[in-house]
Design brief:
- By secondary structure, the protein is an alpha+beta fold.
- It has 12 helices and 10 strands.
- The protein has helices at about 20-40, 45-50, 55-60, 80-90, 95-100, 110-115, 120-130, 245-280, 290-315, 325-350, 360-370, 380-385, and strands at about 135-140, 155-160, 160-170, 180-185, 195-200, 205-210, 225-235, 235-240, 280-285, 285.
- The strands form 3 sheets. It has a 4-stranded mixed β-sheet with strand order 1-4-5-8.
- Strand 2 (about 155-160) and strand 3 (about 160-170) form a beta hairpin.
- Helix 1 runs antiparallel to helix 3, helix 10 packs antiparallel against helix 11 and helix 10 runs antiparallel to helix 12 (about 380-385).
């Protein structure tokens, strides 16, 4: 694998126990360095107007964007472990709780790798890797929520163009995205089997993007998108016409797992910070760690994190060939996102009043953790996915 990954000593990480391998742990070092050096010192700046181009270009300089782009196109040619590693580090960094999904939407690149035309790859791959092409996945709509295939946005063929009408909401990076992969109905009579994916570029007439202010991820670029007779070339179709459902199924499972990766990363970091706090905080003449209740809470948290990581690791071997099932990704998302929230809640309690202050890392991570149980499929939807198997 080639690329411009920052060369840091892999011995800083537990490569012996890593399910990713040494090469991906080197990639982890690069991503962690990027967050520590470039994002964490600036995270508060993003709260007013979202991320800027400079922070994306910096990510490009570190070589962490478009990691799965093949070497034939000038990319690193990394396997899909890179998505999981980047997602885990996004969760591990307290700045990720403010910057939002941010680089996590690099999963969009997979659709171009797997289904893009040669023209699309030549056009977008170089810009994705430099940070000059921010991507977003236009799936969710106000009326359909987690039921992506109930979307009402339509694309009608008119000669050599698609004419798109509709809207999307709660789209990660949607407010700033340079290109959006829009899930459209191209054959409404076929329902889920009549969906297609079409690229719409920023600035296309009739296409507008609005930033949404969210409870957590205040520095993120969550957006609402509107399409009013938007015309794009037929060549903007990604994959086969009416073939989006088959394209989405394996990638939706992968998307859920990268949310899981972020959850385990955040839970691990919160536990580490809280453990250190308890070892140093003095209360009634003794350290907070010396109270039995503190020890019990910490022991429970560490146990759950280790068990959760073992479950997560057991699914990683299926990442490279995209063989994760709906059921497996649903189980993982239920368990690990709920685990993250419990962990952060316990950490807030052990930090006390400090963690009630908005500028405290644990406070921001706690607030951000709430959405993990909603997006990429709410917990209740995940249970429905699992439950329906029993009635067949």
């Amino acid at each position: 694998m080639s690329g411009v990954f920052l060369k840091l000593d892999p011995r800083n990480f537990e490569t012996e126990d890593s399910p990713y391998g040494e090469e991906m742990e080197m990639f982890r070092a690069t991503v962690r360095a990027y967050f520590e050096r470039e994002v964490e010192p600036r995270y508060r700046e993003f709260e007013e107007s979202g991320t800027d181009r400079a922070i994306w270009n910096k990510a490009g300089e570190y070589g962490i964007l478009g990691a799965t782009i093949p070497e034939a196109y000038g990319g690193p040619g990394a396997n899909r472990f890179s998505i999981m590693v980047a997602a885990e580090e996004l969760g591990y960094s307290p700045a990720g709780a403010t910057a939002g999904s941010f680089i996590g939407t690099d999963i969009c690149t997979n659709f171009l790798v797997d289904y893009g035309t040669e023209e699309q790859k030549q056009t977008y791959f170089p810009r994705i890797m430099t940070g000059d092409c921010v991507q977003a996945m236009g799936m969710t709509e106000a009326e359909s929520g987690s039921d992506a295939f109930a979307a009402r946005t339509t694309a009608v063929r008119d000669g050599d163009e698609w004419v798109i009408n509709g809207s999307k909401i709660y789209i990660s990076n949607g407010a700033k995205a340079d290109i959006v992969y829009v899930l459209c109905k191209t054959a409404p009579e076929l329902k889920a089997k009549g969906m297609s994916m079409i690229i719409v570029e920023k600035g296309t007439p009739g296409f507008t993007q609005h930033r949404m202010i969210t409870q957590g991820y205040k520095g993120g670029d969550t957006g609402e998108l509107f399409f009013d007779d938007v015309r794009v070339p037929v060549s903007n179709l990604v994959g086969p016409e009416n073939g989006a459902a088959a394209m989405f199924v394996p990638n939706m499972a992968l998307d859920r797992l990268q949310i899981v990766a972020r959850s385990i990363g955040a839970a691990q970091r919160a536990f580490e910070m809280t453990l250190e706090h308890c070892q140093n905080r003095k209360l009634f003449g003794q350290r907070l760690i010396d109270f039995q209740n503190t020890q019990f809470v910490l022991a429970q948290m560490e146990t759950e994190i280790r068990v959760g990581r073992a479950f997560y690791n057991s699914l990683l071997r299926k990442v490279v060939n995209n063989s994760i099932t709906d059921a497996e990704s649903s189980m993982a998302k239920i368990w690990l996102t709920e685990l993250e929230f419990r962990t952060l809640d316990n950490c807030v309690q052990l930090w006390g009043g400090q963690a009630w202050m908005d500028d405290h890392p644990i406070s921001r991570m706690f607030t951000a953790a709430r959405v993990q149980r909603i997006f990429a499929g709410a917990t209740e939807l995940m249970k429905d996915v699992l439950g329906r198997r029993y009635t067949r």
